[in-house]
Write a structure and sequence with these properties.
244 residues; Rossmann fold; binds NADP nicotinamide-adenine-dinucleotide phosphate
Length: 244
């Protein structure tokens, strides 16, 4: 399937590593002008070396004032990949309010204001847009030690649906991808232990974790006109895990 994003401006958060980084590079290959947002300057430096057209923005998205200031110069956005997240894993009885604050401010509180700013711009320009939230299989299935992660991703899925409902009339589509484990830095935090990894893959009908490219391809599809009538879905990229 040929997908072109020529003439479109895409913004990807959490763009320094893993799924976000690969999404930036794929979008640029498909002709988009891409703004890459992440908090480690060295990652942005290497990204620009790899793809000189990428516009780097270095900001910690959990620092709201800095984020607002950084967004001022970004310009109109047609395509948004809301991808940045962290995994703070611990047993439920050991979760601290601070850990919940860190995860929920990135995924929810600041995340919502960030999405609002981009969606307001899309609405004001009247040309529609497409937003993909990067969620997880953990939004719909309980995983041990993942209570904060599961709770925030579950909230993100409902945010995806309510945004789709309210922004649809402006031709702004909002969907999510919900991957199973991908062995990025974040994935390794929870699943490097061979015993845990085996227990998880044995619950995935395809018998394996997802690759970064599996997730990127679904993101590109949801951003593109190939999914023009798809709005408000939470698309598993999980080898069938959530079907069982
Ligand atoms: P990753 O390789 O760890 O990359 C995450 C990126 O987000 C990094 O560049 C990180 O920057 C950036 N980031 C984190 N917090 C940030 C902040 N406060 N401000 C700005 N940038 C920030 O993770 P990934 O596996 O690609 O995860 C991407 C998305 O996929 C996440 O939403 C995650 O929940 C979701 N997901 C991942 C898996 C998996 O198994 N990997 C499965 C399902 C869903 P630093 O490195 O500088 O912190």
């Amino acid at each position: 399937m040929e997908i072109s994003f020529a003439g479109k401006h895409a913004l990807v958060t959490g763009a320094g590593k893993g799924i976000g980084r690969a999404t930036v590079l794929a979008l640029a290959r498909c002709g988009a002008e891409v703004t890459a947002v992440t908090r480690t300057q060295a990652d942005l430096n290497s990204l620009v070396l790899e793809c000189s057209s990428v516009r780097p923005v270095c900001v910690d998205l959990s620092d709201w004032e800095a984020t607002e200031a950084a967004l001022k110069d970004v310009g109109p956005v047609d395509l948004l990949v809301n991808n940045a997240a962290c995994a703070l894993l611990q047993p439920f009885l050991e979760v601290t309010p601070e850990q919940f604050d860190i995860a929920s401010s990135l995924l929810m509180a600041n995340g919502i204001v960030f999405l609002q700013i981009v969606a307001r711009g899309m609405k004001a320009r009247g040309g529609g847009g497409s937003i993909v939230n990067v969620s997880s299989q953990a939004s719909q299935c309980a995983l041990r030690d993942h209570s904060v992660y599961c709770a925030t991703k579950g909230a993100l899925d409902m945010l995806t649906k309510t945004m789709a409902l309210e922004l649809g009339p402006y031709q702004i589509r909002v969907n999510s991808v919900n991957p199973t484990v991908v062995m990025t830095d974040l994935g390794r935090i929870g699943w490097s232990d061979p015993g845990k990894a085996k227990a998880m893959t044995s619950r995935i009908p395809l018998g394996k974790f997802a690759e970064v490219e599996d997730v990127v391809n679904s993101i590109l599809f949801l951003l593109s006109d190939k999914s023009a009538m798809t709005n408000g879905v939470t698309l598993p990229v999980d080898g069938g895990f959530l079907a069982c």
